[in-house]
Amino acid sequence: MKNINRTSMALVLATVGIALFSSASYGQAPGRGGRGGGLPGATEQQLQAVAEMTSALAVQRSAVTAARDELVAATFAGVRDESAIKAAVEKLRLAEITLATRRGEEFAKLQAGPNKLSAEQVAALIAAGGSPNAGRGGRGGPPPANGRGN
Questions:
Q1: Per-residue pLDDT tens for 34-70?
Q2: 30 pairs with which residues across the strands?
Q3: What is the Cβ-side half-sphere exposure of residue 137, based on CA atoms within 13 angstroms?
Q4: Which of the residues 1, 31, 90, 128 has the least number of beta carbons within 10 Å of its own beta carbon?
């Protein structure tokens, strides 16, 4: 195998690994991190604003997921098709750029409004991958019927 092919294969495998990991994280149930749901000191209005920002990105997140699925399918197809893999990588790249651009626009709107997040809250939002409840605060999902955490 030529060096360029090894490099291409390494890039594809790394992309697939990221795609599989990221797709799994989109499906995580929200955790129960106490007041603020993962955003320290967040008000109910701030949490609602973040939820609205997240909802506004649904179409773009779906496009990224679909593009990742296409890349995985192209990568593991029975017959290797370099052009299909390259096309899938490009589609994923464009979907990610579109999502990032829209996320930036929605975040700018949030920060320009009355429910602006503090620097600490922004850091927590970034650390949580843009969703303050994903995979945080315990086992996730709704609280038990008895209202206790066990």
A1: 444 589 999 999 999 999 999 999 999 999 999 999 9
A2: 134
A3: 24
A4: 1
**Angle, CA 105 vertex, CA 100 and CA 111 arms, to 5°:** 120
Q: Which residues of 102-115 are buried (b: 16+ CB within 10 A; e: fewer)?
A: bbeebbeebeeeeb
| Between 30 and 133, residue with greater pLDDT | 133
Assess contact for 31 and 135: CB atoms under 8 A: yes
Quickly count: other Cβ atoms within 10 Å of residue 101's Cβ: 11
Q: What is the pLDDT of residues 86-135, one digit of tens each?
A: 999 999 999 999 999 999 999 999 999 999 999 999 999 999 988 776 54
- Over range 12-34, report the average pLDDT: 41
5 burial type by CB count under 10 A (0-12 exposed, 13-18 middle, 19+ buried): exposed
Phi, psi of 134 (to 5 degrees): -70, 115
C-alpha–C-alpha distance, residues 13 and 19, integer Å:
10
Which DSSP category does 30 fall into?
A: B
Residue 84 backbone phi and psi in degrees, to 5: -70, -40
Quote the DSSP letter at residue 43. Answer: -
